[in-house]
Input
Amino acid sequence: MGKGKLYIISTPIGNLGDITYRAVEVLKSVAFVLAEDTRESIKLFNRYDIHTQLVSYRDQNHERIIGKIKEKLDMGLNLGLVSDSGTPLISDPGFKLVRELRGAGYTIESIPGPSALISALSISGLPTDKFTFLGFLPKSLSKRKDLLSRYLSLGSTVIVYESPKRVISLLKTISECVDENTTVLAKDLTKFREELISGQSNELMFALKKRDFQAHPHGEFVVLIYPFSKKGKGSFDQ
Output
């Protein structure tokens, strides 16, 4: 009997209708699905009448369950991995699992689908030919500033994820890193409250403060920044 394979399955980032036929078929066919948060995944499973067993998987419990995962694969069973939303491993758990299984000769297969960073980039109006994705920035203000300054100096679009509680602070840091920029805030993509606003980072900071956003923060943000050179022109204008 051959070994089973692990499917990396992309799921909706908001609207539950944004899932492929193939993803649903695979979720129904595998022996069980490793999920970042089973309470979140069960909402999708209920929508599509998926009865496959959900097993909690996070980086923190990797060592405890990796043996059982390999055991099931060795039995010829196929397994799936999902995150709370979007494409697994993109600022979500799964890297340790994929690295170890690939190193041990197991087959890993991607079931592609939604990704918040690609969705945001595609509608941002910023250059898409070159971009850098930094995920969630360090909590240390100095480390955040150093990292942003380094990558903004490359002159291409920089993309980060940010929580609503820190987004205003991030906008301030962007303004300190680069004088002229176009920054886009993409919030609640594909959801009822989806919003996309763009402008200079300091303008967006004042706009959020004006709507009293600090008192009522909500929504996860994809933040896209395009830096301009000292002459006021970047590669987008050339």
Remarks:
- Residues 62-74 form the longest helix (13 residues).
- The CA atoms of residues 59 and 96 lie 7 Å apart.
- The radius of gyration is 20 Å.
- The chain has two domains: 5-111, 116-227.
